[in-house]
Amino acid sequence: MAQDWNEKLESAQKMLPLIGKLHRTNNVVTSVFGRLLIDVTDIDIIKAHRYSRLATDKELSPQDTLPVLEALSDLELGTASIDLGRLAVKYAEVGGDLTEFLKNELAEVIGTGADVESRDVVLYGFGRIGRLLARILISREAAYGSVKLRAVVVRKNGDKDLQKRASLLRRDSVHGAFNGTITVDEENNVIWANGTKIQVIYSNDPASVDYTEYGINDAIVVDNTGRWRDREGLSQHLQSKGVSRVILTAPGKGDLKNVVYGINHTDITDEDAIITAASCTTNAITPVLKVINDHYGVKYGHVETVHSFTNDQNLIDNFHKGERRGRAAGLNMVLTETGAAKAVSKALPELEGKLTGNAIRVPTPDVSMAVLNLTLEKETTRDEINKLMDQVALHSNLRQQIAYIHSPEVVSTDFVGTTHAGIVDGLATIANGNHLVLYVWYDNEFGYSNQVVRIVEEVTGARPKVLPARIDQREL
């Protein structure tokens, strides 16, 4: 075991400079079955390869992917996200000349160039979701350079507002410390985060900000305040100079297009100046429901959400306009309503009128669970469902939305920081004929924020080409 470990370590250490060079020179990000190799150590690389045992018959080691990485370094690759694990497995099956194999597999991005056009992004509001969006956008800019966080718009709360907001970005009780450095330029109202200049703009009116004064043009404004949720309210952003599009981080009202990335993001058109990213729960359950409906048909069902408390609730008992939400969030399970079940049909019209839903707020700060109680058109078994969800999570075009876990020891804190929209807990699956119960974990803060950023990248044309191409889940 010691010799095997040392061999893995040696190969991983040889991979590090090659990974960095591909990123710097070609704007290529590498992964091993979806585990991104960004800002990694040699141990991180070994751990990523360990994960491959879930996707292949034989666990890969860095010795297997090092030759692939070395050959990639000699190709004129353009911007892309390239899975070394999938390439290594496929090459082991087909054999032949490695360079020629890679040229054929990656033809779409060979010679396409690494230069990308950056788009400006503005965060309107800087609460729980806003600060996580900032963290993700900063890391995505470092990875691909295609989206750039330029400004944050907030209401000023005292003389130390800037310092306090920078501190909240720097430290988070749930998600830990910011990965990098943060400094504050009080004279110019700027927060510097890993070299990204974030202009802090103080305003109470979304229609009166002149972003062009700060060199911001054609910007995507991500409204994470939840204050306006209809077309009339959100249209105020479009009256400001320098804004071209608005994305709401909440379910929209009226005729606004609710988008769940991975499900209906291709429906976004150039005419959609305002779109919404639905809710965290809708994002968690819609991809899973899509898979189940495509393979087995959903006749009807009920969604029960066990949801962590949020800032909307009271810390201790006090007046609240919502029913039950005035009771102490840290002491009680609070039965409340959710529109997530009905909202699914805005992304999946075929489920219109088939789902009901309710929610229970519980005394945890992050990570929630949705229980999908479904009646299907076809009969199935627990093993059949779990095998399907496992394959979807590993190989399909919904790999970023759906993860799968099969462990008797996982609890909610194990899913803090997941980038997936939802994680199916295989050991909890119940199937009896055409009756199915699925348990789906989700980080209602970070997982959802990643879905929002995927929409931002979609509307800006900044989503990198993923190779080898993933399989449509309907073909599994």
From TrEMBL:
Keyword Cytoplasm in annotation: no
Record has Oxidoreductase as a keyword: yes
Pfam (any one): Gp_dh_N
InterPro entries assigned: GlycerAld/Erythrose_P_DH, GlycerAld_3-P_DH_AS, GlycerAld_3-P_DH_cat, GlycerAld_3-P_DH_NAD(P)-bd, Glyceraldehyde-3-P_DH_1, NAD(P)-bd_dom_sf
Alphabetically ordered keywords of this record: Oxidoreductase
CDD domains per UniProt: GAPDH_I_C, GAPDH_I_N
GO molecular function: glyceraldehyde-3-phosphate dehydrogenase (NAD+) (phosphorylating) activity
Family designation: Belongs to the glyceraldehyde-3-phosphate dehydrogenase family.
Protein name, entry field: Glyceraldehyde-3-phosphate dehydrogenase
